[in-house]
């Protein structure tokens, strides 16, 4: 029996193409732009010599590019947020006015973060985001680590926190009651992001 080498080569080529189509393509992942969703918030938590305090913002701008495959985030190629200082609010008007003044809101009305590098650890559902955090006109490179979950609709929920010192951003910690209440220099930024495509 005489073998047709050209026919065998064509058959092998077609088999490879079909294998690639059925095995490789379904596992590919696409990069998508994500926006902020309902329920997201950024909270600043601090202490004083008398009691703890916090301020929360639920209105801020956010953009990011995530590559998602199944329930895993595989890559974060861009991420930024811009938070108007006036949107940070506590339970008391006096706290708000003193905090906004300390943040130099009239001169620097926004707090922002822009990603420079991201490392994703899918096995632990962790994103390590390094970027430039700007507060009161001062920019510092920081690392913010969050955990994440991916929903069935490819929505992403990220939770994390970052401790910073106000003095590093040239912020003088506000005082109250003629200095009787003194706010501690270190605050914690708690982040809850509910993101959708």
UniProtKB/TrEMBL annotation:
Entry keyword annotation includes Signal: yes
Signal peptide feature range: 1-30
Keywords: Signal
Protein name: YceI family protein
A Pfam family hit: YceI
Domain of life the protein comes from: Bacteria
InterPro entries, A to Z: Lipid/polyisoprenoid-bd_YceI, TTHA0802/YceI-like_sf
Start and end residues of each Lipid/polyisoprenoid-binding YceI-like domain: 33-196
Provenance organism: Pedobacter aquae
């Amino acid at each position: 029996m005489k073998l047709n080498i050209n026919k065998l080569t064509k058959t092998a080529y077609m088999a490879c193409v079909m294998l690639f189509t059925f095995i490789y393509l379904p596992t590919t992942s696409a990069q998508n732009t994500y926006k902020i969703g309902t329920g997201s918030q950024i909270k600043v938590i601090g202490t004083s010599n008398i009691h703890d305090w916090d301020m929360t913002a639920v209105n801020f701008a956010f953009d990011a590019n995530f590559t998602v495959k199944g329930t895993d985030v595989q890559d974060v190629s861009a991420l930024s947020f811009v938070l108007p200082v006036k949107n940070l609010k506590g339970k008391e008007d006096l706290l708000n006015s003193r905090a906004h003044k300390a943040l130099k809101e009239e001169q620097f009305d926004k707090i922002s973060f822009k990603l420079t590098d991201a490392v994703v650890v899918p096995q632990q559902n962790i994103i390590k985001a390094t970027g430039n955090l700007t507060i009161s006109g001062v920019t510092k490179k920081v690392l913010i680590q969050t955990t994440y979950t991916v929903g069935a609709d490819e929505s992403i929920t990220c939770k994390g926190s970052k401790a910073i010192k106000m003095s590093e951003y040239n912020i003088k910690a506000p005082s109250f009651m003629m200095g009787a209440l003194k706010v501690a220099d270190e605050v914690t930024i708690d982040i809850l992001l509910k993101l959708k495509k």
